[in-house]
Amino acid sequence: MLASSAVAVVLAASQLISGVYADGPSCPPGGQVSCHNSGPVEDTCCFNTPGGLILQTQFWDADPATGPDDSWTIHGLWPDNCDGTYEQFCDMGREYSNITEILQAQGRDELLAYMNKYFKDYKGDDESFWEHEWNKHGTCMSTFETSCYMNYMPQQEVGDYFEKLVELFKGLNTYKILADAGITPSNDKTYALSDLQAAVKAAFGMEITFNCRNGALNEAWYFYNVRGSAQTGEYIPTLPASPGGTPSTCPQTGIRYIPKNGGSTEPPTTTSPGGPAPTGIFSGRGYLTVTTMGEEDGCLISTGNWYTTGTCATYTAAASGSGFTLKSSKGACGMVNAQFKCGSGVTSTVFGASNGKLSASGKDTFYADMIPTGNTQVPVYTSPHAIPLTVSWQAI
């Protein structure tokens, strides 16, 4: 069964125009992590089952080339079972052949524009590729079932699936991760699998699956378990399924990373728009700017949350012992249950600086569940979550 009727699409558009949005699963905090439950789980709207091992997969298509020369492209968001097997095409009644029309009707124009650039089919038929990914994989994710939505809007789960897929992809800049380790596309150089894994583990926190075709790098698969729904839950980086996992198909050495369009590609230079560059010296008054996957994107506001629009909060750094303390207008700043918080009831943490970046307990990588957009504010943690980031000091 293919595309929904035009009536459903018109209804979806009218609901968006009138401001009526469907509510996705409302999940209590502290729920079980997928693939870590000890028994049956009743609420499958807040627990991904049986596909509790979620993969964000990416392509490096060099011949024919797809997408920008300095970026990998999106493959999909897949719900593997916890043992590495998987189900597919789970609901014929929710298979669609009009993804573009659905996203347009839901007012997701920015999402669609991004997909047109980074979610590419090597045969040139992007729409069919998107349909395949949703029909094969999206219909098998339990938290996207229509019964999980209050005030359900037609095909709302389809838009939510692609929003989450793109959000995760934005936080996993494989090109930049590898380039930072000196691994760039080349017609002459070859690389060892151990070097690829070391580069990704430093950024993602876990090794992943690299796939090759005829000895040339072709795919990267990132694995997560999820606490809560796939739409809004906590994505926790994990290893491929065990026992055996999903092994990389690349050779141990001699891996080719072929440039797109035939040329050798150097890593791009990233510049920060406006304002002075971060100084790396935490002293006096300044902003705490956030960098994720090599690109500066917003800052920490006075509560300690990450925000990408509006004005940065002013922090005060004061020397303390071998490090320094931080304070915002809300009060002292510290790590509370692995979360960076500032407020009147927060006990000050003595922070450090590592390579010019904020560090807590000797670690300069922080994490968030998502990249904030619009008015969204996102907590920042020291424990592994979906999006790795660093925090720098910009003196004022």
From TrEMBL:
Q: Name one GO molecular function term.
A: hydrolase activity
EC code(s) of this entry = 4.6.1.19
Enzyme class, first EC level, given as a word = lyase
Q: Where in the cell is it found?
A: Cytoplasm; Vacuole lumen
Q: Does the keyword Cytoplasm apply?
A: yes
Q: Which GO terms describe its biological process?
A: RNA catabolic process
Q: Where is the RNase T2-like C-terminal domain?
A: 282-394
**What keywords does the record list, in alphabetical order?**
Cytoplasm, Disulfide bond, Endonuclease, Glycoprotein, Hydrolase, Lyase, Nuclease, Signal, Vacuole
**Active-site residues, record numbering mapped to chain:** 75, 133, 137
Q: Name one GO cellular component term.
A: vacuolar lumen
The record, for PROSITE patterns, names: RNASE_T2_1, RNASE_T2_2
Pfam families xrefs: Ribonuclease_T2, RNaseT2L_C
Family label: Belongs to the RNase T2 family.
Role description: Rnase which modulates cell survival under stress conditions. Released from the vacuole to the cytoplasm during stress to promote tRNA and rRNA cleavage and to activate separately a downstream pathway that promotes cell death. Involved in cell size, vacuolar morphology and growth at high temperatures and high salt concentration.
Which protein are we looking at? Ribonuclease T2-like
